[in-house]
Amino acid sequence: MSCFSKRKIEESDKAVEIYLTETELQALAEMEQTGLKNQVRDIFLVGRYTCQRVSDYNNIQPEDFTTTAKGTPIIRLVQQKTRNEVKIPIMNPNLEAICKKYEYNLPSVVDQILNRYIKEILKDLSEKVPTKLTMKQKEKKKAGELSVECNDKGEVIMPRYDCVTTHTARRSGITNMYLSHKFTIVQMMHVSGHKTQKTFMDYIKLSSDEIADEIDAIVNGENAVFLL
Q1: Is the sign of the CA dihedral 37, 168, 164, 28 positive or negative?
Q2: Cα(101)–Cα(117) distance, rounded to whole angstroms?
């Protein structure tokens, strides 16, 4: 039975920019994997739990693990793209387990391999959803180099796993952190490394239905449990 939800990507969303839900991510964490696929799965999950770019979460070194003055376990990074320093608390049990699994010497995999293998890993969990083609995909389709499937509404549909990239880990981490309603924007931006709220909010990938559900949950006093 598929663990991936049938979530439609709204027209207002950028093409093929999705996030994975906590249910989907937990299913991924519990999948039996071996060899390179095992490493790819773990690296991707580290990206989700740290909310970092692939250039950062795929290159965490043993010396990046430290503690605060009060003893909180953290990963201290200087982001490669922006040179911003971020300190991510290691509170999620899955992240802690991955770190201990590799004795805090996390593996690193070439980005292209990471992108390809994470799609293959997620393939067994994924259903087809309406989406939008990227400009490159549109050009390939026009040139006859890409065949696409459409539903009865004329919408292009593709397997959800095909929408996942290495950057989906960062998007998923930020979106699920936002959905927890446990942290302020400032606290979340401290972890993600964003300098402006506008840029940070661009990472929140929610459909109109999800926003409506979120408002209803807040009004009715529901609060999802989330550990960073």
Answers
A1: positive
A2: 20
Full residue range of the structural domain in which residue 206 is found: 22-125+164-219
CA distance 63 to 48: 20
Sign of CA dihedral 24, 26, 29, 33: negative
Lookup result for tokens 């991707």: 44
- Is 2 among the domain residues? no
Per-residue pLDDT reduced to its tens digit, 21-78:
898 899 899 999 999 999 999 999 999 999 999 999 999 999 999 999 999 999 999 9
pLDDT bin (cut points 50, 70, 90) of residue 4 is low
- Name the H helices within 123-223: 135-142, 168-179, 185-192, 197-201, 208-219
E strands within the chain? 65-67, 73-78, 85-89, 128-130, 149-150, 156-159
Whether 134 is covered by a domain: the verdict is no
CA–CA distance, 49 with 115 (Å, rounded to integer):
18
Domain count, the chain: 1
pTM over 0.90? The answer is no
Amino acid found at 87: K
DSSP H or E run through 118: helix 111-122
Main-chain dihedrals φ then ψ at residue 171, nearest 5 degrees? -60, -40
Vertex 149: Cα angle to 143 and 154 (nearest 5): 100
Residues 51, 173: contact at Cβ < 8 Å?
Answer: yes
Which CATH number does the domain housing residue 53 bear? 1.10.443.10
User: Would you state the pLDDT for residue 127?
Assistant: 59
